[in-house]
Amino acid sequence: MKEALISWFIENLGGKVGKEMIIFLISMVPILELRGGLLTAGPAFLDVPMWEAIPICIVGNLIPIPFILLLITRIFDWMKGTKRLKPLVEKLEKKAMSKSSNIEKYEFWGLFVFVGIPLPGTGAWTGSLIAALLGIRFRKAFPAIVLGVFLAAFLMTVLSYAVLGGIFV
């Protein structure tokens, strides 16, 4: 699914906007986030220089986070008041909370590791949603998520540019 989304961005935006805008937008999208942005930026796809791609993907991934942390519970409460959207919200909450045990237990460090280790179902979007649903304060959650995004950037840069770059170049 991630590959299909990345391909969609490249096919539909390629030639219309620069490579940098493509990786910026990919980094903002849930599921793909910085991980998808850096994979797309690497030599296997768009071949954006590493030192250019890293800050673009970090900023793209971080832009939605304050809004999620500060507003998502209010938005979800409003959505639960509608017959059509209530099941969707309940499904999203259930899925997010199924991954929340270590974040709930370790808060800052749990959130940092959850966001920073690039595994399926983890990342800044899900980490922010879980933090908001658990009621973790912004001043504790946001720095943990930022540091987690930096860890993910480091790990994904190694994967995208060193490992895959060595294969595709």
TrEMBL record:
> What is the protein's species of origin?
Schaedlerella arabinosiphila
**The protein, known as:** Small multi-drug export protein
Q: Which domain of life is it from?
A: Bacteria
Q: Does the keyword Transmembrane apply?
A: yes
Q: Which Pfam family, any one, appears in the UniProt record?
A: Sm_multidrug_ex
Q: Which UniProt keywords apply?
A: Membrane, Transmembrane, Transmembrane helix
Entry's InterPro entries?
Sm_multidrug_ex
Q: Give the stretches traversing the membrane.
A: 21-41, 53-76, 108-136, 142-164
